[in-house]
Automatic annotation (TrEMBL):
InterPro entries referenced in this protein's UniProt entry, alphabetically: Euk_RPA1_DBD_C (IPR047192), NA-bd_OB-fold (IPR012340), Rep_factor-A_C (IPR013955), RFA1B/D_OB_1st (IPR003871)
Entry GO terms, CC: DNA replication factor A complex
A Pfam family recorded for this sequence: DUF223
Residues in Replication protein A 70 kDa DNA-binding subunit B/D first OB fold domain copies: 3-106
Organism, as annotated: Nicotiana tabacum (Common tobacco)
DNA-binding in keyword set: yes
PANTHER family listed in its UniProt record: OS03G0429900 PROTEIN
Keywords annotated in UniProt: DNA-binding, Metal-binding, Zinc, Zinc-finger
Gene: LOC107786203
Any GO molecular function: zinc ion binding
Family according to the record: Belongs to the replication factor A protein 1 family.
Name by which UniProt lists this protein: Replication factor A C-terminal domain-containing protein
SUPFAM superfamilies listed in its UniProt record: Nucleic acid-binding proteins
Length: 387
């Protein structure tokens, strides 16, 4: 289904179609009229992280209230776009969306599109938390020593004594230490020095302690390349410590995938068809597949960072870098090039491609940032076993 980005909306037509996530949803109440419902309001976000305010008039609330849920992704078609005016503007967009009786919705499965769950605009100022929100927030202050990254949504803004102040409303919501990469980075930046092992990789449940996992079947690169694997082994896990020496862009740093099976697809006459799913792919995804050359004191090899690992390492979606390709002077975006020279412990998943055919391009399943104290302990234990 063809659709428009939120930045393209204007008030010249009312047959728009957008693909968005509902990142906030609340009822607007008129407290001066015995808590009368005025509307149901939402903050919508699209794949470019653009935000827009959407409202459903009280006469239509019953029609749509069970069809929309916070956090879900939808196609929304046929609605009014008007200029955002008035005192209450929960986002900075110049336009807002109003539902018609004929507005149509289609919910999309999670994972088909890369639309962030939240979109926040920040400011440094004074904030008043009223009533229940203030009481709930106070509880967080006694859980641990912090630091706390607090996000407050849907506030009112007023001029007071020459400055700008914010206050919560009935639509406000508070997030404390929200589990997203940007917030985690801030906590690590302003918190106490972190002495443990940092990991960058897939968040699979693993019963093996990180301190053991990062040394699992540890090899240097020469040992990895010269190992004689048994024919009975079909998959094997090893770890290698090394520096990223170069980004090998012979195969490009990304690929276009089917949104259902994640297999690589290529267009034919402008149409993407997935041969595994045997159907046209209307919503192809851009995913990472970065080949990098890794070097240690004994040699060098090539490993591959697929989407799950690369996305966490780079802290951005592949499609965002892809959309800026025309502006880059190099085929490899600078953010990816900046990996060169950095040292990691690579947890590699070897398969038949490596074990039987003897080929490189090892798949990276997880990355660790080396901890020298743990490395010394590992070396000591290894030497003691030899003795």
């Amino acid at each position: 289904m063809a659709y428009s980005l939120l930045t393209h909306l204007n008030s010249t037509r009312d047959d728009w179609t957008v693909r968005v996530r509902v990142c906030r949803k609340w009822d607007s109440i008129n407290f001066k009229r015995n808590r009368e419902l005025m509307s149901t309001d939402m903050i919508l976000i699209d794949e470019e992280e653009t935000l827009i305010h959407a409202t459903i008039n009280k006469n239509l609330v019953n029609k749509y209230k069970n069809l929309l849920s916070e956090g879900s992704v939808y196609f929304i078609k046929n609605f009014k776009v008007s200029e955002a005016s008035g005192v209450y503007r929960p986002v900075t967009s110049n336009f807002k969306i109003s539902f018609f009786l004929t507005t149509a919705l289609q919910e999309l499965q999670e994972g088909i599109v890369n639309i962030p769950i939240n979109g926040f605009h920040s400011a440094k100022t004074k904030l008043t938390l009223w009533e229940e929100l203030g009481e709930k927030f106070e509880l967080f202050l006694y859980n641990d020593s912090g630091p706390y990254v607090v996000i407050v949504t849907s506030t009112t803004v007023k001029q007071f004594r020459g400055g700008v102040t914010f206050a919560t409303t009935y639509a406000s919501k508070i997030y404390v230490n929200l589990e997203i990469d940007y917030i985690t980075t801030l906590i690590q930046k302003f918190g106490p020095t972190f002495l443990g092992v940092q990991t960058i990789g897939s968040s699979h449940v693993n019963n093996i302690p990180i301190e053991e996992e990062m040394f699992m079947n540890r090899m240097n690169i020469t040992e990895l390349l010269e190992s004689d694997w048994s024919a009975e082994i079909h998959e094997y896990i090893v770890t290698v410590r090394g520096n990223i020496a170069e980004v090998d862009n012979y195969f490009d740093w990304y690929y276009i995938s089917c949104n259902l099976c994640s297999k690589k697809i290529v267009p034919s006459n402008g149409v993407y068809t997935c041969h595994f799913c045997a159907k046209e792919c209307k919503f192809p995804l851009v995913k990472y597949k970065i080949h990098v050359k890794v070097r240690d004191k004994t040699g060098n090899t090539t490993v591959v960072l697929f989407n799950a690992v690369a996305e966490k390492l780079l802290d951005t979606f592949a499609h965002k870098l892809f959309n800026r390709l025309s502006l880059e002077s190099n085929n490899v975006p600078p953010l990816i090039q900046s990996l060169c020279g950095k040292e990691f412990i690579f947890k590699l998943r070897l398969n038949n491609y490596n074990l039987k055919e003897g080929l490189e391009n090892y798949t990276v399943s997880k990355l660790f940032i080396p901890d020298e104290n743990l490395e010394l302990q590992y070396t000591t234990r290894k030497e003691q076993k030899v003795l």
